[in-house]
Design a protein that fits this description.
The chain has eleven helices and no strands. It is mostly helical.
Length: 187
């Protein structure tokens, strides 16, 4: 349990540094590593960290958001909430950790509402993407949706529109598929 808390805090620490430096490539690596670990351990805490990191990667890569005068303040608040979440996790304060994550989600949703151009907010998009990745790691649709908090109907539609099901080879067992997809995500 303590190792899981430290693993989550480590991912949050990396996300803080990547987000602070506007390093979307490093954020993507964090997302891929975190959702892989979340899938393997069925760890909802890590999955939520991956969801948030993915949403941060997406919003910080949008020129119309990063170029906005409101972005500096929003980014500062998100960084504060990320730091708070990391400290709460290290202290083992699950209730405070959840509160910190809620503040991050609210900040991201606020940025989406004020500066975004899309109907679906970044957090929900991130949930679908992370659930799809968890599915690619071998979780069932239901388990992937449960792990990430994605809507299972939306997830089925999303996965149906992707090529994940076409790429999987039936003769590979779960450990072989995890190894295969782990290599793909690292490249």
């Amino acid at each position: 349990m303590l190792d899981d808390l430290h693993k989550g805090a480590n991912y949050l620490d990396k996300a803080v540094h990547a987000f602070r430096g506007a390093d979307t490539i490093f954020l993507k690596k964090i997302v891929n590593d975190c959702i892989r670990d979340a899938s393997l351990a069925s760890d909802k805490r890590l999955a939520e960290i991956a969801v948030i990191a993915y949403a941060l990667m997406k919003i910080s890569s949008k020129e119309h958001i990063a170029g906005s005068s409101n972005w500096a303040y929003a980014r500062k608040k998100i960084l504060e909430h990320l730091e708070d979440a990391k400290l709460s996790l290290l202290k083992g304060d699950e209730k405070k950790f959840e509160s910190d994550l809620n503040r991050i989600r609210e900040s991201v949703s606020s940025v989406d509402y004020e500066l975004g151009h899309y109907i679906t907010d970044s957090i929900n998009k991130a949930r679908l993407k992370m659930a799809s990745s968890a599915y690619a790691f071998g979780l069932s649709l239901g388990s992937a949706a449960d792990l990430t908090g994605a809507d299972s109907k939306e997830l089925m539609q999303y996965i149906g529109a992707t090529k994940i099901h076409d790429e999987e080879e039936i003769e590979l067992n779960i450990s072989q598929r995890i190894k295969k997809f782990s290599g793909l995500l690292k490249s």
